[in-house]
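Researcher: Go.
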Amino acid sequence: MVNLKKRSYKKELLDADDIPFEDIKQNMLELNSINSLLGGHKISIAGLNELLANHDKNKEVIICEIGCGGGDNLSAIDGYCKKNNIPVKFIGIDIKKECTVFAKEKYPFLNCSWITGDYASVDLTAGKPDIIFSSLFCHHFTEPELISMLQWMQKNSRIGFFINDLQRHPIAYYSIRFLSSIFSKSYLVKNDAPLSVARGFRKKEWQMLFSKAAIRHYKIEWKWAFRYLIVCKNGE
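Model: Structure:
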């Protein structure tokens, strides 16, 4: 039995620098399937909707994802915006060149600027996004790094930001370990999917992080399947 009372700090395989591109590609394809089947994309769209509640739907909205991976989240949001006649422009940032190259090739129809690099080093002053978000990204970081990330997201967004990430819970851990062992063809997914849950946070831990980041106004909602949607509107 894995002890999930405390957060794991074991590094995921995906965080290594020497992973072959084909392995990363398979990982990204399977993550898209997981996000689609388990409602991950719906959670991101819910976060977007909350931040756009008072936004002029005829005005173009600029949305930035940090840790964009293979671009599947941005593609899902683009489909939603097109259905609802919301003009949108995207910025996708990922530290791995393989991810941004893959995303650009897979989603050429996206009105997106793909940026390879550390999100914290990207200068967004020339085109400050309305909304910044991350999905399955935060659990890769330490608590001090996350405090800085929260402050960066607030500072660099006009409307606000949202986070879509995993709840650390035994059911989530053992379910994804079982499912990935049967259905996954990626050794990265088989190893990292349950580890991602073990590296995730619980509600009280998120509250502590926001307190240390000196951000008071935010909302945490539990979502199926064992995720948290955290929305922070600037100026509230």
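Model: The radius of gyration is 17 Å.
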